[in-house]
Amino acid sequence: MRIAADRDRCIGVGHCVRTAPDLFDSGEDGRVSVRNSEPDESRAEDVRTAVRLCPNAAISLLEDPTSGA
Ligand code: SF4
């Protein structure tokens, strides 16, 4: 799985950082930066939660098409 972030869409609310601080961070401008764009599958639920909570659809989870998931 891979995390994609569109910093142009991010409005800096920070739900993603609070949900998974090991995966997301706030840059100096307050917008999201991805700390680990290819986390272990065990983190999928947290990533999905962050994606769901983001108010501006700035982050997305790309499932690995070769994993069969
Ligand atoms: S939840 Fe969305 S809008 Fe808020 S900081 Fe994260 S990516 Fe940006």
TrEMBL record:
Q: In its UniProt entry, what is this protein called?
A: Ferredoxin
Which keywords does the record carry? 3Fe-4S, Electron transport, Iron, Iron-sulfur, Metal-binding, Transport
Which coenzyme or cofactor does it need? Answer: [3Fe-4S] cluster
One Pfam family from the record: Fer4_15
**PANTHER family cross-referenced by the UniProt entry:** FERREDOXIN (PTHR36923)
- Could you tell me the superkingdom of the organism this chain comes from? Bacteria
InterPro entries in the record:
3Fe4S_ferredoxin (IPR001080), 4Fe4S_Fe-S-bd (IPR017896), Fe-S_cluster_ET (IPR051269)
Fetch the PROSITE patterns from UniProt.
Answer: 4FE4S_FER_2
User: Which residues are in the 4Fe-4S ferredoxin-type domain?
Assistant: 1-29
* Function, in words: Ferredoxins are iron-sulfur proteins that transfer electrons in a wide variety of metabolic reactions.
